[in-house]
Design goal:
This protein has about 270 residues and is of the alpha+beta class. The protein has helices at about 20-25, 35-45, 50-55, 60, 70-80, 85-100, 115-125, 130-140, 145-150, 185-195, and strands at about 1-5, 10, 15, 155-160, 165-175, 175-180, 195-200, 210-215, 225, 230, 235-240, 250-255, 260-265. Helix content is about 35%, strand content about 25%. It is an enzyme of class 3 (hydrolase).
Length: about 270
């Protein structure tokens, strides 16, 4: 995850040091094969802009029943520094039950894919945006969705005919990028944005086109998913074991601007 996070603890020789008491408070209990849940939540809740936006909306969250996932996520964040493991366990159970209410695959207590869980959580949080804005407006308040404000971004997919050069574009909203594993994240991003040839029948008679992707907007936090599995020539799935270099910075650009984002969490 690339973005911005505020340092915790005290600084000494350029390093952030946490006290023994602070270290003892970190972490979430495993509810039986829910390490994927804990990994996602603890990574998500280290994102300073996202968490600050969530706290700003604390009054608005109680105006609309569909905002329950946002309220529960805020509860998880508030109990992170607590030493009360019973409270942490109960908060996690309630949060996971809420997610599983709409997604049955998370009900059976078995190990699941962390990326799929993250995608489901972000979609749930952003899906109530319209209702939240209406409920807030009725009370002369405003509502800003933390996901839309800091994680969501738009990509422009452009297709160009190889014959006549005609271009058409479509803008889509993304919550993360899923990149094929390369030597580095930067190379994976370049590969993702590289133009690719595809079959497409144009009115001019040509049957081939070029398609390329580009950032239309940049998020405060870019979530990158590295694909670590590949399909073999025998149509089986195998995990790749090649090392991927993680740089501390990643350069993102649109037609209007360019920004460097820093690695925050993994």
């Amino acid at each position: 995850v690339f973005g911005f996070a505020a340092p915790r603890g005290r600084l000494e020789n350029g390093r952030t040091l946490l006290s023994t008491e602070e270290l003892a408070c970190h972490g979430l209990p495993n509810l039986s094969q829910t390490c994927y849940v804990n990994a996602v939540l603890q990574s998500l809740l280290t994102l300073t802009p996202f968490v600050e936006e969530l706290h700003k909306q604390s009054q608005q969250l109680y105006l609309c029943p569909p905002a329950l996932p946002l309220i529960l996520l805020s509860e998880v964040q508030s109990c992170l520094p607590s030493r009360n493991w019973a409270r942490k366990k109960w908060t996690l159970v309630v949060f996971l039950t809420s997610v599983a209410g709409c997604h049955a695959e998370f009900r059976n207590g078995t190990q699941q894919d962390a990326h799929e869980f993250l995608s489901v959580v972000l979609q749930q949080l952003s899906s109530v945006c319209g209702e939240m804005k209406s409920a807030a407006a009725a009370e002369t308040l405003s509502y800003t969705c933390p996901v839309e404000a800091h994680i969501s971004f738009q990509m422009l997919n452009t297709r160009q005919c190889a014959g006549c050069g005609h271009e058409s574009g479509r803008t889509e909203t993304y919550l993360n990028l899923s990149l094929v594993s390369k030597d580095s994240v930067s190379q994976g991003l370049l590969e993702y944005l590289k133009a690719e040839q595809l079959e497409f029948k144009c009115d001019c008679g040509a049957s081939e086109s070029w398609q390329r992707r580009s950032f239309s907007t940049l998020p405060n936090v870019l979530i990158v998913h590295l694909q670590r599995f590949e399909v073999t020539p025998f149509f089986t799935v195998e995990k790749t074991h090649e090392a991927v270099s993680l740089s501390t910075e990643l350069l993102l650009s649109t037609n209007q601007s360019a920004e460097k984002v820093k690695l925050v969490t993994m």
